Amino acid sequence: MKFQKLLAFVFVALIATGTASLDAQQKNKGKGKKGRAVLAIPEVADKDRICFALYTVHDKTLKLTAQLYPIPEGQPREVRLEIQKDGEWTEIAKIDVIERGWTAPFRVENWDDSKATKYRVAHGTESFYEGIVRRNPVDKKVIIVAGYTGNSIHPAHGGDISRQDLIDNVKRVDADVLFFSGDQVYDHHRHYAGWLKFGRDFGEIIKDRPTVSLPDDHDAGQPNLWGESGKVSTLPGASDGGYIQPGDYVQEVERAQTSHLPDPVDPGKIGQGIGVYFTNLNWGGIDFAVLEDRKFKTGPAGRVPKQGPRPDHIRNPEYDPDSVDIEGAILLGERQLKFIDSWAQDWSDAEMKVALSATIFCGGAHIHGSADGRLHADMDSNGWPQAGRNRALASLRKGFAFHYAGDQHLATIFHHGIDEHRDAIWSFCVPSIANLYLRWWEPLEPGANREDGAPDYTGDHLDGFANKVTNYAAANPEKNPAGNILNTRSAGWGIVRLDKATREITMECWPRNVDITTSSAKQFPGWPRTISQFDNYNPPSWGKLGELTFNIQDPVVQLIDAQTEEILYTVRAHGKSFTPGAPKGKAFTVKAGKNAPDKVVAESAKVGSDPISVELK
Amino acid sequence: MSVARLILLLRIGSFLCFAGWTWVHFYWQAPYGKLLWNGSVFSLVEKLGMGWDEFVGSGENDGLIQQLSRWIGWPYIACAILSLTVRKSSRWQMLALLGGCGLLVILSFAKFLAANQQLPMFVEHGGQMLMPAILVTALAKGVRHRATVILTIVAIITTFAGHGAYALGIYWPTPAHFYGMTRVILGIDQNSAKIFLLIVGILDFVICVGIFLPWTRRACLLYAAIWGFLTALARPVAGMDMDLNFFGADRYLHESILRTPHFIIPLFLFFLWKKSPDSDQRNLPPETRTI
Fold first, then answer.
1. Would you identify the CATH topology of the domain A142-220+248-537?
2. What is the ipTM of this complex?
3. Which residues of chain A lie closer than 8 angstroms to B173, CB-CB?
4. What's the pLDDT tens digit per position in A424-450?
5. Any chain A CB within 8 A of the CB of B71?
6. Is A7–B137 a contact, with Cβ atoms under 8 angstroms apart?
7. CATH 3.40.50.880, domain A46-133, yes or no
8. Cα(A112)–Cα(A110) distance, integer angstroms
9. A460 sits in which H/E element
10. CA distance B219 to chain A (A)
């Protein structure tokens, strides 16, 4: 009997310990309120059947996806798109709703983007949802792109706080484009319910301006995503590569979030019938490349030597970075790289180029907000595989593309390097709308070549994969966030102003719940920062060719290595003169033209060569 | 099967369970993140005069969390060894092994927290948590003692009810990797995988009821042992690949090994009930009869 009593005592003690710990966890999650959001699909009246609508216009084609609440049995499945002409609503398209995810994706060709057009989506006789398709702001001097990531709705870290500040600020600056870089939905099983919630929160600003939304790992229903061209993942954590959720779930997510994007440039499907959406969107003279930096990426588990407690985490600072840069590991994949190479050369109707993707091309954080603490490198970032990272940057810099991304839960500005520091593009990673998981950029050594008075964490560094990076800002959260659960966790959003008149790019990083138009509103330390478009490919070691003077404004200029015939870069010059940068000691063929570089204007041009006057038609 | 062999079966189950988790603690990452990384724990640590860097690590040095996670691996090794050495005559060994039960409860609780407090995540670890307790009870009171049998039944019911709740996906969503493993191993599509998991989910609950019925219990136990073995094996079968480093064995094998209780415990009861319990118990004192 003694033993039985002892046994009973042990179990009672264990249960009591567990209950006490659970209680402590609950208390920790928001002072009595539950830590996780209750996500439900609300019952709506017939007149409210349409939740929201997203659209883009590209190359005179309108693509608009209406997102509906479930349509009860017996009601029509047909959804109509109408525009206002001379005060009257005119139907221009109709489609049956796709019941899996309740989306109605419209595609309207020969769209007149020279004027704003009121539209409405209609279902039945009662439900109407109105918005405005803006005119293409080709003549607008500054194009404003508001950027967001990480839309957690869980109360434990402020996810339940209203998004009204974000809505109000977008209206105040009248953003031209909205960019949601990923993790719009954190629920791994109910994307549809989460997407409707997202629409209720942001529909008010989305309905009236082009929006790019990229589904990232959490949207696809998994904590990290190495898509491996549609493989099935069987490992919790998914570091074996592939998708945890079935293909039809992923297809539903991508249909909801990306079917309004311009047509994919290379629409071949990957495994499990999953589509691709990488493409470009030309709006207001800005050519956006919409990239998929997860879909083709190789999973690290079992392929790279173990370097830490997880297959995708490297904890050992003494490891050999080359050992994980394994042959055959893919980042963007050949199909997408081919697209970028083509996109970087095409300057039709474009003055500046911006690449949009889920995350940045480096390991952009050192400390991760879980028990892991400091990570030397995280293979979920685009810092790995290094060869793929360098290949992507090498392609993007050929078009002087600026990179706008999110995912990291930590706002940063990096100037990337391949062969030397600062020889590739700049990136701006925006902070999370509500920060689920904290990260810090906190290198152990001060950066080299820091600006005067800049914090130690800025300057030239090697990231955990020995990639060359130069940090200019990091919105590190407080070490032990308390009190204001948004601002102490560095939640916020970003603005990029693309000034076509000066060819300057200004990055702004704002905390939540401030009116950004007031003089007292302060951005995160390190912001704003303005760079030139041409800083996106201006290696410190380069020199200058002789100045080119043209008879026309803003011609397209291309430099080709005279020996290898490889294109060094293509760019639309600013004004009637352009002084090309180039590596020293090499000869280049220089081509130029009004909208495409179709005329050779110099051969064997070298750094320090004479100025040239060019006549173009 | 003789008592000695039944005990050996339990020893193997307990040893492999602790050995698998030892591998996780030392080679991979034990799932204590959600348990240790929270405000209340950090507040407590602060009261003890410890700062942030000491708690989570500075990068140059591991913090308390990393050290603790590794230290816990040593008791797991000890419990794995104790599973083989424990004797009825050594109360301290038995108590230490019961302490191992406590460790498994804490670990399962941490996994439950990490799984957004989904009850089946905790419940399905019942077999693992109770495995050492069953061994100790069998040694202390006898393999046929009602305490041993009750613990064994509880272990089976919790394991299979937890699995079944996830497989059915009615209240708690079916973990997506259940579908993935099913599709990869059986080569079937998503809809077929759903139907398959629905059926096996129902069977999981049938087992929980069936082991109480004299005319179905051995069949249920045999099914439970086979199904427990197959589900434990599913991870390496689905994930290992000749192209991976070590064929992926370092990532997947321990996932099977630590799940040994899922089939050892039903197998134990299957053999225990091999003969008619009534005939067996006639000669036993009442307090040692099985139920």
1. Purple Acid Phosphatase; chain A, domain 2 (3.60.21)
2. 0.80
3. 188-189
4. 999 999 999 998 888 899 998 999 999
5. no
6. yes
7. no
8. 6
9. strand A459-462
10. 30
